[in-house]
Structures are given as C-alpha cells and as structure tokens.
Amino acid sequence: MALFPISSHFHGDFVLKLVPVDTENTMDEVAIAAAEHSVGVHVPDKVIRARKQGASEPFPRTMILADTGLEPTDTVEFYYSEA
C-alpha cells in the first residue's frame, strides 16, 4: 500500500484535480475518489469508468491501481457509462 497521486480529468469538469489514492485501490475506488472532487449530484444508474488520458478503452473496474502502469500524476479520465 502506498499513497499515489493522480491527475483527475472528470468529463464535464473544466479543471484537472490532483487526487490522492492508494496503489491497492481498485479502479472503481479510484473513480469514487475522483468523483468526490467533481460530481455535485450522483447519478445512481450510471457507473463511473476510468481510462488513461488519450486511451480508447477503460481500465477493468476491478483492476488494482498498481497494475495499471500509471505513473504518479498521470492524468486519468473519468466518465459515466452504462456498464
């Protein structure tokens, strides 16, 4: 377990935010941490997905952050998805 800073780019938000997460967090947990800083109202039937900035595919939701290949302060895009 280690503190790991990511740069959060949440779709619909115009500001990047530095968000501290843990290397053992799943991508779902990382998405929740990012949402706390950008989302004013939670949309219950939507899932927040995460992908490295510029990537076409999201990370698997159960992937551990340490296994993503991200470096500290890499930008991660967060967006709503149906699944």
Question: Can you give a write-up of this model?
Answer:
There is one protein chain. The protein is of the alpha+beta class and about 80 residues long. About 15% of the residues lie in helices and about 35% in strands. The protein contains one helix and four strands, in the order E-E-H-E-E. The chain has one helix at about 25-40; strands at about 5-10, 15-20, 45-50, 75-80. It has a four-stranded mixed β-sheet, covered by helices on one side. A hairpin with a 6-residue loop joins strand 1 and strand 2 (about 15-20). The longest helix has 12 residues, at about 25-40. It is globular. It starts with a strand and ends with a strand. The model has no long low-confidence stretch (mean pLDDT about 90).
